[in-house]
What we know:
There is one protein chain. The chain is built from 14 helices and 10 strands. By secondary structure, the chain is α/β, with parallel strands linked by helices. The strands form 2 sheets. It has an 8-stranded parallel beta sheet with strand order 1-3-4-5-6-7-8-9, sandwiched between helices. The protein has a two-stranded antiparallel ribbon with strand order 2-10. Helix 9 links the parallel strand 6 (about 165) and strand 7 (about 190-195). Helix 4 runs parallel beside helix 5. The longest helix has 17 residues, at about 300-315. The two termini are about 25 Å apart.
Amino acid sequence: MITRVSLLGKTIDCHTHSGGINIAHYLLEAYPYCCTIPELISKMNSVNIDISVTFPLPNNQDLKEYPEVNRLSQNIIKYEPCIYYLANRRLLMESKMYGEERVLPFVIFSLYGDYYRQIEHINNLKDEYDIYGIKIHTSCDHINVTRIIEEPILLDFFEELSLPIMIHSGFEDYSNAYNMCEVFKKLRHIRFCVAHAGRMNKDFLEQLYYLENVWIDISSIPILHKSLINKRNNSNVLPLDYTTPYEMIYYLIDKYPQKVLFGTDYPWVECGYLKNHKSIHNGNDKYKESSNVLRSLEPNVQRLISNENICDFLFGKFQV
């Protein structure tokens, strides 16, 4: 079992994916569609990252815009005893086989449905494997995280499990970071991290200051800041210069020094379709670019966002 003490002085990436297959991406000839623990560790070694928090690649539970793909993927999923059954098992088995002392696996939980069987499966897994947290992907589920406090079975499960929870944020209503605040206030004893800096949603960031149980990650840095350039005039996005990642990063560190976490979102650092002949080996390695941005920050800031704050999210705030 990895502990806070064993992470002392380590560089940690709080947001990566491995285990399982994104079926929709595979069927659409898109990438990424999978990642193994050995691949993840190889990438970590290439940029001197010591430890990664990792969770399975998400699957779109209801891909209405691609009816044929949706039908095929749903048929494949039906072979599983519950949603993410195989992905969570593979992640935990590979972590034990290849990644001990290098990865902290989170299991993924779908808010789309099938709650009883998912809960039973995760409870069985935690009896056999070390599980460090839960990942919820609101955009793939098309479900707002408020479902947790609307369904008694979910509320009881997450309260009992008492593990940190990483939540995907996006621009849709159901992945809007501000809409998550009701959950954070209700479950103040559970630690949450809102991925992708809550897409710099200004209403959420105003609330963040008062939410002691909530952190944010800045994954994937090269993609995140570029995705916000055309959103600067959006009334929901904090108006900053997003042409480089640095104004965003330093704004967050200045305002929320104890809440910012470093993450890469590997392998979700390069996305596209094979038919477009775009190569992920074209020298534009965004995983390495994320690491380079981290290393360009002052040593005390690097230590804060790639170790101390992540340990607080994982294990609770250190008591002197």
